[in-house]
Amino acid sequence: MKQSMTLIPTLREVPADADVKSHQLLLRAGFIRQNASGIYSFLPLGKIVLQKVEEIIREEMMNAGAVELLMPALQQAELWKESGRWNTYGPELMRLKDRHEREFALGATHEEVITSLVRDEIKSYKKLPLALYQIQTKYRDEKRPRFGLLRGREFIMKDAYSFHSSFESLDEQYEKMFTAYSNIFKRCGLNFRAVIADSGAMGGKDTHEFMVLSDVGEDTIAYSDTSQYAANIEMAPVITEYVQSTENQQELEKVSTPGQKSIDDVSRFLQVNPDNCVKTKLFKADDEYVIILSRGDHEINDIKVKNLLEADLVELASAEETKNVFQCSVGSLGPIGISNVRIIADNAVKSMKDFVCGANEEGYHYINTNLERDFQVAEFADLRFIQEGDPSPDGKGIIKFAKGIEVGHVFKLGTRYSEAMNGTFLDENGRAKEMIMGCYGIGVSRTLAAVAEQYNDENGLLWPSVLTPYDLHLIPINLKDEAQSSLAFELYGLLRENRFDVLMDDRMERPGVKFADSDLIGLPIRITVGKKAAEGIVEVKVRKTGEMHEVKKEDLMEKLQDLYRSLP
């Protein structure tokens, strides 16, 4: 491709609203352009990389036994109401009405559509298992789109769904998909970890996220320093064993704490450690209030609360709700005297003695509080976030944290959707049974951004050879020079004949501009036709290492093959 005939609008300055490397470089190198907040056009270079990611995905999906189809982005509200998610999915679901006032949603995901399709077409166990996938645009009304392609309102996703007559069959497909995902991200050259995860609004259990390690990741990975254990911080169980003091209990006492609201405020004021204070938080689980207690130096994990209570939606009650229920502010809330709301505590609280807690009265706290004597707890459970330095849940090593970008997620949905939407089949005995489902998603455009985030330097992008938009960047310094022009066009034809994808910079630009754009775009190898063109000699540069080679044109093909064998 001649550069003068395509659209590669490079930028010299970093766009003001681009906060992370991938966003900055994809904009500057002319791969994408923003149309609105969280909405982007993929320009020719970006589209080529997307297609290469999709090719890898299609090959691995075929190996996993999945078949491609395409479903509508515009989805009937009735399907979402059948599944129960119309009112629970949240404001991220983009809803609209047609001219007849019928309700629709723009597809944030496709569980409802695929379930309705398969339930209408598959009636017998003989047609199961079945795995279907699509690559399509998704829409989510993110409250705060950020980081370019990493968190947008419109994005490209590969979503796959499998249907089974038994859980054993689901397990087999899950392992195939897990392997396929690992292969996809390895082939894309990504440094990633597969971590235990929460299924969120998707429903189901037994899920893994595929996280690309990156300092700009919005998710925190908890991993063992000595084993392969890794989990999203929301899902990592705490196995710390707490030892209870054997000292005698002290007498409960109410003390004045004027103006002290937070645990840090109260602990400083009373000169006690935060780990000798108890946080009391009011949560709303679906339509029920519940008190959750944790140690002062721990943070309550609402995902663990949600899973314990088997609730669809769990959220921290507002200050106004807390005031209405207990007639006190959030900073003064405590467990003593509460009888109208169930109290659940994290395991760490069970071993505490003579601790500080709120007194349900503005400006007062209790000291020397003790369980059983002063209040009752209905249930103890693991309800806090794991912390760095905690024992690894697999019993091997201690926990450390890393940041990650989620690029893939696999779920065992079970009968979550088939039960709600009457997705049944007849088994070998002629009895109706609910289909068992799996769900498997990859952020295609997010994967492109994750590669850009990991593959760059101070001069621009560094595409791995498997994803580069072109194999080679051919740059004649001065096309007005007859020797350079003749050799450049001769090589352009020869390289294409040898099945290289070539981008030739035939623009009438200064050499410095051409070289700067070449580094920015990040093709693996650059061939410069310059002052030695009359001798049939060109300069070959490896973008990643900067190594240079002067090569005669008759030796060029052999040299390129040698260099390509060593490229990542």
From TrEMBL:
Record flagged with keyword Transferase: no
Q: Which CDD domains does the UniProt record give?
A: ProRS-INS, ProRS_anticodon_short, ProRS_core_prok
Q: Tell me the compartments it is located in.
A: Cytoplasm
Task: Provide the GO MF annotations for this entry.
Answer: proline-tRNA ligase activity
Q: Does the keyword Metal-binding apply?
A: no
> What residues form the membrane-spanning segments?
none
State which Enzyme Commission number(s) the record gives: 6.1.1.15
Q: Kind of enzyme, top EC level?
A: ligase
The organism's place on the tree of life at top rank: Bacteria
Where would I find the Aminoacyl-transfer RNA synthetases class-II family profile domain in this sequence?
Answer: 49-464
Primary subcellular site in the record, as a coarse category: cytoplasm
One Pfam family for this entry, by name? tRNA_edit
Catalysed reactions listed for this entry: tRNA(Pro) + L-proline + ATP = L-prolyl-tRNA(Pro) + AMP + diphosphate
Q: Which UniProt keywords apply?
A: Aminoacyl-tRNA synthetase, ATP-binding, Cytoplasm, Ligase, Nucleotide-binding, Protein biosynthesis
Give the similarity note.
Belongs to the class-II aminoacyl-tRNA synthetase family. ProS type 1 subfamily.
| Subunit and interaction comment | Homodimer.
Report the protein's function: Catalyzes the attachment of proline to tRNA(Pro) in a two-step reaction: proline is first activated by ATP to form Pro-AMP and then transferred to the acceptor end of tRNA(Pro). As ProRS can inadvertently accommodate and process non-cognate amino acids such as alanine and cysteine, to avoid such errors it has two additional distinct editing activities against alanine. One activity is designated as 'pretransfer' editing and involves the tRNA(Pro)-independent hydrolysis of activated Ala-AMP.
**The record's note on its domains:** Consists of three domains: the N-terminal catalytic domain, the editing domain and the C-terminal anticodon-binding domain.
The protein depicted here goes by the name: Proline--tRNA ligase
Q: What gene does this protein come from?
A: proS
